[in-house]
Fold Tetratricopeptide repeat protein.
Amino acid sequence: MHSNKFSWFQVPEDIKKLLILAAQNWENTSESEKYIQEALTKTGGNTDVLVAAYRFFYYKNNYSLALQTTYELLDKIKKSENFPDEWDQLKPLLINRREESPIRLYLNAYAAAGLVLAKLGEIERAKEISLRVKEIDDKHDFGAGILLDVLTRPAEEDD
């Protein structure tokens, strides 16, 4: 039926069903959010489910939950990859491994955190994150450069 559309998605069938229900009930925010929360609870923070949840909360303009989900994803990757806490130690590691998928996911999630922080009005923190991602991302894969331009552009240029 529906779920073959999500064949790339590495989650159990019952979780796929919850995510499909969330999508089908998109117009009813509280109903669809219930399915997302259930999927998160049942999977204990499966990476794919966290990404789906982030997107859901972001597009529902629920920026605080989007941020919370992004931080969960960052923590999960940090633990599994044994990342150091200090940015000065983490940065060279991210640069050297930036083509690997867990690192790409980490950078995408970190850039996403910057975007959400900007939406929440935390402009300085958003700038710091987008500058950091831009230092690693010379090919502009993660959109941090665009975000940084938006955050640092003089106000009078907004038409």
Summary: The chain has a mean pLDDT of 86.
